[in-house]
């Protein structure tokens, strides 16, 4: 029998709570829901007003994994949806605005991916992101080195960057921006990626060509395009273990870059819940429009 629970006055049917989704650790679907409910206060502001792409893995990372952009069948009428422009025609997507919607979406077993704009102003960026993706034998240590360079370069233009783990093998840099279209932010991000490659040619690559990535960090600037999305802060990832795309302190990034201790950049659900209790949302400054930098 599927248990029914009430969240903020909404009745939800939560299924298969004992199902193991992460066999390497025995992490269950019930624990997935508990994690999202625990971090909801810091996660929801990063989802609010953003149309979501779901990377679903209902049978765990070893099962079928697929992207869902349109509103899923059976979505409750009280879940907010919005029509979103696309080159192939408008689509209706889910917008998670509250705890009940978050728990409903988490019950689908999904990663949360967001664009760098909000539904009130599609195609007008309020975020800038870099996805630092290492090619073996380079790893997250090298990503930390590149992240520090990009942070300093962005600061020269009055843009304050923050770091988070990708929940996989790399790092994300995130900054609040204002006054620019997604296209303009994409062009700016590409210029900085090219500058980074010129400054560190043995370490950085700005082109997407996979055959060139060995031993280098690909600075993916393209996720600033209006049609692209990035794994949201605090989302669980469909990996072997329940890793999280978790905000970091710059001190941590520097310590890993200098010590080479890559393991410190892998943060699981339990660790992230503890970090939130201790520090709150380390990525909160990007929610403050007053701290947004102007894209040159």
TrEMBL record:
Keyword annotations from UniProtKB, A to Z: Ligase
Keyword Ligase assigned: yes
Protein name: ATP-dependent DNA ligase
Gene3D superfamilies assigned: DNA primase, PRIM domain
Organism: Streptomyces griseoruber
UniProt-listed Pfam families: LigD_Prim-Pol (PF21686)
PANTHER family per the UniProt record, alphabetical: BIFUNCTIONAL NON-HOMOLOGOUS END JOINING PROTEIN LIGD (PTHR42705)
Molecular-function annotations in GO: ligase activity
Ranges for domain DNA ligase D polymerase: 28-282
């Amino acid at each position: 029998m599927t248990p029914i629970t009430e969240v903020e006055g909404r009745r939800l049917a939560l299924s298969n709570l004992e199902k193991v989704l992460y066999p390497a650790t025995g992490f269950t679907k019930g624990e997935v829901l508990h994690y999202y409910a625990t971090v909801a206060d810091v996660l929801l502001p990063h989802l609010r007003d953003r149309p979501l792409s779901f990377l679903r893995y209902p049978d765990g990372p070893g099962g079928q994994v697929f992207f869902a952009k349109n509103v899923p069948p059976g979505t409750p009428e009280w879940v907010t949806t919005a029509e979103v422009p696309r080159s192939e025609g408008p689509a209706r997507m889910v917008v998670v605005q509250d705890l009940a919607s978050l728990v409903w979406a988490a019950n689908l077993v999904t990663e949360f991916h967001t664009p760098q704009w909000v539904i009130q102003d599609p195609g007008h960026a309020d975020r800038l992101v870099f996805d630092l993706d290492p090619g073996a034998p380079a790893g997250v240590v090298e990503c930390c080195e590149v992240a520090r360079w990009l942070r300093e370069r962005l600061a020269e233009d009055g843009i304050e960057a923050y770091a988070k783990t990708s929940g996989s093998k790399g790092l994300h840099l995130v900054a609040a921006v204002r006054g620019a279209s997604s296209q303009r932010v994409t062009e700016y991000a590409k210029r900085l990626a090219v500058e980074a490659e010129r400054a560190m040619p043995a370490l950085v690559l700005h082109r997407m060509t996979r055959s060139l990535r060995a031993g280098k960090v690909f600075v993916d600037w393209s996720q600033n395009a209006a049609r692209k999305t990035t794994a949201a802060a605090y989302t669980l990832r469909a990996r072997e273990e329940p890793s999280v795309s978790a905000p970091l302190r710059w001190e941590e990034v520097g310590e890993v870059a200098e010590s080479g201790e890559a393991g410190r950049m892998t943060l699981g659900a339990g660790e992230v819940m503890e970090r939130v209790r201790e520090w709150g949302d380390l990525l909160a400054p990007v929610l403050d429009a007053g701290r947004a930098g102007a894209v040159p």
